[in-house]
Each structure stands twice: as structure tokens, then as C-alpha cells.
Write a structure and sequence with these properties.
The protein is an alpha/beta fold. It has 13 helices and twelve strands. The longest helix is centred in the middle third of the chain and has 33 residues, at 238-270. The chain is globular.
């Protein structure tokens, strides 16, 4: 036999005794016979078919996330937005209506209002804490309600149990985006949500390395989403799933460290005379186990002062992501929520002077020092002099 042929068909290592899960970097799988291939493709027998919708690394991540959320099943996607796309394509049709919590991530709102509207699916926004507005805007055609809890960037908590009662009484699918609290600090399914969604490139990853999305819930719902994924191909890569699976192992410890830093920073901001208002779970009546490392504050002076403050930061990274080891800052009105009109930003509290922070894992004293000097630079128009 030719040496090239021998090399191509040489055996590879058996990693069944590996302590850490091996990454399943393959596009396809071998079958023992044509009959086995037919049986797997038809679903008659379980087994891998094609990595677009069956991959051991992805399966491992999905299984671990489902366990942590208390879900029957979970399905992973290439991004958080592709997960939202999957929800709409899988569960909505022409003539259906969606209610979105007001002030949520601007791209989510834009997707539902600007793109799905072309296919006859309408969407309206609701003040998340206004129960009368939820009931008033509910239509016979409302088929889905989507909330972030807490919301980004104003950290508003939805009354998940109340909304669950409302949606169940009206046969509506209730989706909670749990990205900011993670399954460590909140399990929306146990509070009555039908589906829980995560943008996995945030705290689940923890180091800003990947982009991904995942939805968890009852098997009946997830099976519908899996069927869509098989046809659409918006799948998570094996490598990203492998990274995220390992990240889940340290999620609880990381969240505790993030939250401790956030608490110290928020306490300092609350007494800073140049800060007009702070939005944080630490300023609410939430149980201490449910706090969020993301918070926002309004600096006195409006957008110009906010920009000077952000530009004067020397330690804190100017980055629109959240959940990194580094502390991150962004100006929501001109970045994450720029697709809202000026009127909508005003209505939902996206102030021009609003600055969003995600506490990283550095020393809280160092983060506060950078905030102190950058706020001083912005308000007093000094030159940034931080190390």
C-alpha cells in the first residue's frame, strides 16, 4: 500500500481516558454500514450525523448548561442574536405579535421590529415594571414575550413569576434573557419562564474569547429549535463549545469575584458628588445571591462629560462586551442602544450621560482609582494623569 494512503488512514489516539474532555474537531462521522447511516439520519437510532447539528463538544456544553439552569434540554447557536433569530423562525408566523421589555439590547429590538415586520410579525416594547402596560398591550395575536432580567444597561428586574402567570393564562411563550445574572444567580425556568437564553460570550465565557448563544427549556421546545438548527446551520462551533464547557466549571467562583468588585465600586459611586444616579442591583432589594456585576451611572454634564470620562480611563477598557476578566466601559446611547430613537432613549431612561460598567477581576481599589481620576478629568477638564 502506498505510504501516502497509509498515512491518511493511520489510526489516531484514543482519548477516552483523558481527564479533560477532548475537543471534537470534525465535520462528519463514520458509519459502520449504509443501514446505520440511514437509521441515524432518520432518527431511528441515536448517534452523530453531521457537526452542523450533532457534535460531542457542543452536546457536552448544552448538557452542562441545561443542568445548571434546571432545564430538560438546551441548544447552542453561533451567537446570541442567532438564538433570537431561532426563536422567531421556530415559534412565530405571519400575523403574530411579540412584546419586548423596553430598553433591552438595541439589536434585539431592532431584529424584531425592523426585520420580522417585513414578514408580518409585529413587535411592541413595554416598560418592564408596568404591569398595567403589559396587560394593555397584550393582543389576541401575542405569541411571545421577551425580557432581560436584569435589563441592560438600567439593571431593571422583571417580575418573572407575575409574567409567567400572565403568559400561561394566554398561551404565550415566555423567554427570559439570563445573560447578566447567569444560572449561578438566577434560574428563570424555576420561576415560570418557558425558555431561558444566554449570550455565551459574556460571563459564561468569562474572558471575551468567543461569540455564542444558547437556549434552555423543556425538551418539546428545544426539539423544535433543534430541527430549525439542522436546516439553518446557525450552529456553535466545536471549539467554542469546548471553551465554554470549561468556562462553566469556574462560573460560580468568577461571578462571586465580579460581584464583590461591583459592590465596592457601586458603594463608591453612590457617594460621588459628580454622579447623578447609579443603576445597580446593590441599590435594590434583591437577595445578596442575585447581584449583577454590570451597573450604570449618570455623570453630571451630559454626553460630552460622559465621553471625556470614558476617554480619560487608563485601566478600564473601552469595550462594548461584558463578562471579561478586565473591567469594561461603554456609552450605551451611542453604542449598544444607538438603534433606539432619541425619543425612545428618553422614554426608557437611556440618558446621554449614562455610562455602563462591567466590573472585571482586577483589584477593586485599582478600578475605583481609575474611575476617580477619569471622572475628575471629565468634570474639571483636566488631563488624564493616571498611571
Amino acid at each position: 500500500m502506498d505510504s501516502i494512503t497509509q498515512g491518511i488512514h493511520s489510526n489516531f489516539a484514543d482519548l477516552t481516558d483523558s481527564h479533560a474532555p477532548a475537543i471534537s474537531m470534525t465535520s462528519a462521522y463514520d458509519f459502520n454500514s449504509a443501514q446505520e447511516a440511514k437509521d441515524r439520519f432518520s432518527g431511528k437510532v441515536t448517534g452523530n450525523v453531521y457537526s452542523r447539528f450533532t457534535n460531542p463538544s457542543v452536546d457536552n456544553f448544552q448538557r452542562k448548561l441545561a443542568i445548571m439552569e434546571g432545564a430538560e434540554s438546551a441548544i447552542a447557536f453561533s451567537s446570541g442574536m442567532s438564538a433570537y433569530l431561532a426563536l422567531a423562525v421556530s415559534f412565530l408566523k405571519q400575523g403574530d405579535h411579540v412584546l419586548l421589555a423596553g430598553g433591552i439590547f438595541g439589536t434585539t429590538t431592532h431584529l424584531f421590529r425592523q426585520y420580522f415586520d417585513k414578514f408580518g410579525i409585529t413587535a411592541k416594547s413595554v416598560n418592564v415594571n408596568n404591569k398595567e402596560e403589559w396587560k394593555k398591550k397584550l393582543l389576541p395575536t401575542t405569541k411571545m414575550i421577551i425580557v432581560e432580567s436584569p435589563s441592560n444597561p438600567l439593571i431593571k428586574m422583571a417580575d418573572i413569576q407575575w409574567l409567567s402567570t400572565l403568559t400561561k393564562a394566554n398561551n404565550i411563550i415566555f423567554v427570559v434573557d439570563n445573560t447578566l445574572l447567569t444560572p449561578v444567580n438566577q434560574n428563570p425556568l424555576k420561576m415560570g419562564a418557558d425558555l431561558v437564553l444566554h449570550s455565551t460570550g459574556k460571563f459564561i465565557d468569562g474572558q471575551g474569547r468567543t461569540v455564542g448563544g444558547v437556549i434552555a427549556g423543556r425538551k418539546a421546545h428545544i426539539d423544535i429549535l433543534r430541527s430549525y438548527l439542522r436546516s439553518s446551520g446557525t450552529c456553535m462551533s466545536a471549539f467554542d463549545a469546548w471553551v465554554l464547557s470549561h468556562s462553566l466549571d469556574t462560573l460560580k467562583a468568577r461571578m462571586a469575584a465580579h460581584i464583590n468588585n461591583a459592590k465596592a465600586i457601586v458603594s463608591w459611586l453612590n457617594i460621588n458628588p459628580n454622579v447623578r444616579k447609579v443603576y445597580s442591583t446593590f441599590n435594590s432589594l434583591l437577595d445578596s445571591s442575585s447581584h449583577c456585576p454590570v451597573f450604570s451611572f449618570i455623570i453630571r454634564g451630559g454626553e460630552d462629560t460622559a465621553w471625556r470620562c470614558i476617554d480619560s480611563m487608563c485601566l478600564i477598557s473601552r469595550c462594548t462586551n461584558i463578562g471579561d476578566t478586565k473591567t469594561l466601559v461603554t456609552h450605551p446611547a451611542t453604542t449598544t442602544h444607538a438603534r433606539y430613537t432619541d425619543e425612545e432613549q428618553a422614554h426608557y431612561g437611556i440618558d446621554k450621560g449614562l455610562i455602563r460598567i462591567c466590573a472585571g477581576l482586577e483589584s477593586s481599589e485599582d478600578i475605583i482609582h481609575d474611575l476617580a481620576q477619569s471622572i475628575s478629568c471629565a468634570v474639571d477638564r483636566n488631563v488624564c494623569n493616571a498611571p
